[in-house]
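pinging the channel bc i need a second pair of eyes. not urgent but kinda urgent?? the chain im working w is below, pasted from the shared doc
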Amino acid sequence: METLRERKKQRTRDALLRVAVELFTSQGYEETTVDEIAEAVDVSQRTFFRYFSGKEEAALALVEMTVARFVEAVRERPPHEAPLEALRQAVVDGWYAINDVVESVVPVTTYLRLYRVIESTPVLLAAHLRRSVEVEETLSRVIAEREGLDVDADPRPRLAVAVFSGVMRVTERQWTTGDDFSLEGMRALTSLYLDGVGPALLGNWREA
């Protein structure tokens, strides 16, 4: 059972994260300081660093929360689903469940705006891509376990995850620069691009 002290610590972390995301999305990542975040929550800079190693960790914390939920969703997919189908369904269905992950901290609309901040801030984008590589390895091992394979002996789990991750990267980039910056827009674009993997890889792009 969660203690009063643990609940208080969680409330403080959520408050710091909420303010950080609101400031990053309203005035910019580089323009926001740790002191501003801490002052808005009425805590010391030292307290901020008890919960986050720095601004970068705070900026990517919500994304990492949703990614962790996605990895669990892949693990929970029905065992009869093929690897790419399990990945596809986990991410497409996961957009409906995103409220459960982020809305205890910030509104979903604020979370979506954070994606644009990440895409437009080189240091955050670099960190986001670096962490994506780590997630790919985790997913490869999840897929290998689902299929009863040795991930280090059989390249197929890593190949499947690499294809999936490439599609998701293109989707993120198109979504953050497009006109429909809604949750439903992201879900629709994700479905469209994932469904187009087969034709894109195997089809003849030139008209006869």
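so The two ends are 66 Å apart (CA to CA). and DSSP finds eleven helices and no strands in the chain. — does that match what u expected or am i reading it wrong
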